[in-house]
Amino acid sequence: MLERLAALDSERARQAEARRHDAAASANPLESTGAFQGAFDEQRKIVEESLSRIRQSGSASGKADMDAVAIQLAAMDKMVSDASYFLPPYDVQSSRSVVDRLKQSLESAIAEVIPKKKFSFRAKNTSSSPKETVTPPAVKNEEEEDETPSFMPDRAANLHSIRDAKNSTIVHDSGESSETEVTLSNLTHCTVFLRGIFRAMFFHKLKNCHVYVSAVTGSILLEEIDSCIFMLASHQIRIHSTTNTDFYLRVRSRPIVEHVSGVRFAPYAFHYQGIEDHLKAANLAEETGLWEKVDDFRWLRAAASPNWSILRPDQRVPLVDGTNVSSREFCNK
Question: Where does this protein reside within or beyond the cell (predicted)?
């Protein structure tokens, strides 16, 4: 599902770029303004209808729609950014207010229909890592008590959601299946290992977390991230509303950032026994060098964007070895 939505998001991006060129050549900018408003209102209605269905259906069928709405909202946010160069300032602010309101409505709907379920687990003690690699400890704030995550698997759609966790170590192995989709939401001081082959991922509201991901055949979307470290291998990566975060990437297309500050990039540095086979199966075995070819959709000038930078070699963490990390499935068997 997330892969299809990501494809729709990419298509919208292509159409937005085409509209931008058309608007630049148009003698009547108001015509482009009208076209934007029509498309934006159409997306708003779709999201509002989806939110209504989520509330009506409850947890029985609403879970499958929540991540779809989140991706639709990301597309609307990008739509506003793409049109901001020709829209009147009032229209830009008004449209962004609509997106913010819809995001709050989604959070409210999630709180209404999904009860928390607590699962407690602890990672096993691991053996020492090879000399040139490190096995990172869980990111933990000593002043806070542990709060284990709420796991919400949707077996029919192979969609797995983890939300509302603090000071936890979360490990999941997808194996050779490339149909698994993962959502992480509202995590603080957590360490997450996702090993295997995945279809798509969505990360929302993560703070002071370390996230290590192997092979994603589709896309990864990140929103509202603060002070984290990510090691990601994916065909497409889009980063929104993120601050003070380091990304170690292997990608098949240029990473896209928007509304970011203090983000830094470096080449992929995650390893575990068997990762080479997983990367090869996902067509991610070769280093493309695209990790440093970042497109900032909020910076249209010829000069380099001040919102992101390359992480210097002496500032990068060593290769992270996730081989011996204790594995615990978060889907029901």
Answer: Cytoplasm
